[in-house]
From TrEMBL:
The lineage of its organism: Eukaryota, Metazoa, Chordata, Craniata, Vertebrata. Pfam families: Anticodon_3 (PF19303), tRNA-synt_1g (PF09334). The keyword Ligase applies. GO terms for biological process: methionyl-tRNA aminoacylation. This is Methionine--tRNA ligase, mitochondrial. Its main location: mitochondrion. Residues 473-570 form the Methionyl-tRNA synthetase anticodon-binding domain.
Length: 619
């Protein structure tokens, strides 16, 4: 049973009032004011009568980021990674999804964008991991944080900000945020007891637990979802009035059906909000948890690591001073295991602090390995450094983004990487470039001309008989390539990057068929009419390759760069706004015609060897 009470918590919270009437700068520098009412409010979460005070009406609306339009700003974020162990491919997947979205935005020439990531360094989990490793938390965090930094850099994740929760600027933001919660009346002190799961850093209700035996064969309780052992914990904590936010959260979601994607996760959150929403313990006794940020003006308590971690999304944009330039134009990419923290706790905390919820939460599922959950104890953790070494940066990025489907768990095995990457990048894409730029069919090594007489513009491609040399199939194929950029953009917008890649591959295969169908190597270059048709076939093929190279930049940046350089596409011609496909077919001029092709005639993507396994434990 938990204490709950409907508070007169008005919608103005969600609409974004500002918690602090005082100057943010002055308040951040000065010690935050005492708890409402001066002394701690004695309360019990389970059973006791609630002494709730209404949340205070909040004043001053925050500055908002430009909401719409082409120049609109956007902060994309990855979760910040626990600094208790090295990165694995699940972490990398979260980061790659965000990176691809960020890069695609840049390609579209959208407004200013940032991609934030970092490490989550406080909490019992880290404190215990450091003790087990015979080191101190700061030392452990330093080492692991730099491993994450390296892994993300190595994987070409184009982050603009890397936040460590141990940094002073972040800690200052957390203290300020706590002050805003407290000043808004959203916190109270109570005694809390329940089953705490350290690996998940949260209390779990009985309904999410099951009986088990520990390593010594003693009965114990474990989390149903993760199998991690839980421990009974009873202590004095500060509680956050989460229960008061049930209706505002529901309203927020009803008003914003795109707020959580893919849709099944949106429904999952709505379902959670139908159930009981108990208040949330947001601090731990300092005697148990020293590795964290002390509660302002109560040094006996440490701020709950999830509150601390979530605030990274604000500290990165300069909270409490300059965040209004970005907030709430924010999209969080998160794994399904941390959905409740992002889609229930975080928006409620934000509302309570007088800020609007993030614009979107983009959720992905998990990678399993040979059908099993990835775990250190099973020894099946996939090391991103080994994978990149084995499959190259682009090969591995391509695999994860092409095979990862956010709606459902995906299974990893090394053979699948080799198969997908060889067939789609090395053979289909690389082969197409190789064949269409071969000196045997294009000895001048230039971007050849398009001939309208060979490929005349038609209103209905089924009526092409006797009009040129292109067939109805050819018209159909160029139409599908012409619609590709928009299709890809829609899939990126809908957080379905795998579908965008599927469409691109389909077009690459169609282009190979087009090329094969017309056997340009059989055409007689001495015959002017044949030469015109030969040039047109190559021109169309290179135009297609230019589209694929441009669209693939967010996913395989190095390979795309190589491809575009070979096609002599200048850096300033690689954006989506300058991507005019087959201009000559539409009677316009094509700036590429006659251009000397790039000098690198090497293989675009080398076939991968049958793999050495990347499944290994790392330390
Ligand atoms: N520190 C928290 C996040 C705080 S954000 C304010 C955390 N860290 S984590 O290191 O455990 O996880 C980071 C991300 O990796 C999460 O999005 C999580 O879902 C993702 N993955 C962890 N294991 C995964 C797989 N096996 N597969 C795919 N992604 C997974 O949670």
């Amino acid at each position: 049973m938990q204490a709950r009470q409907r508070l007169p918590l008005a919608q103005h919270l969600y609409n974004g009032a500002c918690a602090a009437a005082r100057s943010p700068l002055a308040a951040a520098a000065a010690p935050p004011p005492a708890l409402p009412g001066g002394s701690p409010l004695p309360r019990r979460l389970y059973g006791g009568a609630a002494m709730l005070r209404p949340l205070r009406r909040l004043s001053r609306p925050p500055r908002r980021a430009a909401a719409t339009g082409p120049g609109r700003r956007l902060l994309l974020s990855t979760p910040i990674f626990y600094a208790n162990g090295p990165p694995h491919i699940g972490h990398l997947y979260s980061a790659l999804l965000a990176d691809a979205l960020h890069r695609h935005r840049r390609l579209r020439g959208a407004g200013p964008g940032r991609l934030s990531t970092g490490t989550d360094e406080h909490g019992l989990k880290i404190q215990q991991a450091a003790a087990a490793a015979g080191t101190s938390p700061p030392e452990l965090c330093e080492r692991v944080s730099s491993l994450f930094h390296q892994a993300l850099t190595h994987a070409a994740v184009s982050f603009t900000d890397f936040t460590r929760t141990s940094e002073p600027r972040h800690q200052r933001a957390v203290r300020y945020f706590w002050g805003a919660l407290r000043d808004g009346g959203a916190l109270y002190k109570g005694s809390y007891e329940g089953w705490y799961c350290t690996p998940e850093e949260c209390f779990l209700p009985e309904s999410q637990l099951t009986e088990h035996r520990d390593a010594q064969g003693r009965p114990c309780k474990v989390s149903l979802e993760t199998g991690h052992q839980v421990h009974w914990t009873k202590e004095e904590n500060y509680m956050f009035r989460l229960s008061a936010f049930q209706d505002p959260l529901r309203k927020w979601l009803r008003d914003n059906p795109q707020a959580i994607s893919p849709h099944p996760f949106y429904q999952r959150v709505l379902h959670w909000l139908e159930e009981d929403l108990p208040d949330l313990s947001v601090s731990r006794e300092r005697s148990r948890l020293q590795w964290g940020i002390p509660v302002p003006s109560d040094s006996t308590q440490t701020i709950y690591v999830w509150v601390d971690a979530l605030v990274n999304y604000l500290s990165v944009v300069g909270y409490p001073e300059t965040h209004g330039e970005w907030w709430p134009a924010v999209h969080h990419v998160v794994g399904k295991d941390i959905l409740k923290f992002h889609a229930v706790y975080w928006p409620a905390l934000l509302m309570a602090a007088g800020l609007a919820p993030p614009e979107r939460i983009l959720v992905h599922s998990h990678w399993t390995v040979h059908g099993q959950k990835m775990s250190k104890s099973l020894g099946n953790v996939i090391d991103p450094f080994a994978c990149i070494g084995q499959y190259t940066v682009d090969g591995f990025r391509y695999f994860l983004l092409r095979q990862g489907v956010p709606e459902r768990d995906c299974d990893y095995y090394d053979e699948k990487v080799v198969k997908v990457v060889n067939s789609e990048l090395a053979d289909a894409l690389g082969g197409l470039l190789n064949r269409s730029t071969a000196l045997s069919i294009n000895p001048s090594n230039t971007y050849p001309c398009f001939s309208e007489s060979c490929f005349p513009k038609v209103l209905d491609y089924r009526e092409t008989k006797g009009m040129g040399r292109a067939s109805a199939e050819d018209y159909e194929f160029v139409a599908s390539v012409a619609s590709l950029p928009l299709q890809v953009a829609n899939y990126f917008e809908g957080f379905q990057i795998y579908k965008a890649l599927e469409c691109i591959v389909l077009c690459v295969r169609q282009t190979n068929s087009f090329f094969q169908r017309h056997r340009p190597w059989k055409l007689n270059r001495k015959d002017p009419a044949e030469q015109l048709w030969l040039d047109t076939i190559i021109h169309v093929t290179l135009e297609c390759l230019r589209v694929y190279g441009t669209l693939l930049q967010p996913v395989i940046p190095h390979t795309a760069d190589r491809l575009l350089s070979r096609l002599a596409v200048e850096p300033e011609e690689r954006g989506l706004s300058s991507l005019t496909f087959l201009a000559r077919y539409n009677g316009k001029s094509c700036p590429f015609e006659g251009r000397q092709l790039g000098p690198d005639t090497g293989i675009l993507f080398h076939r991968l060897e049958k793999s050495r396994h990347c499944t290994d434990l790392q330390t």
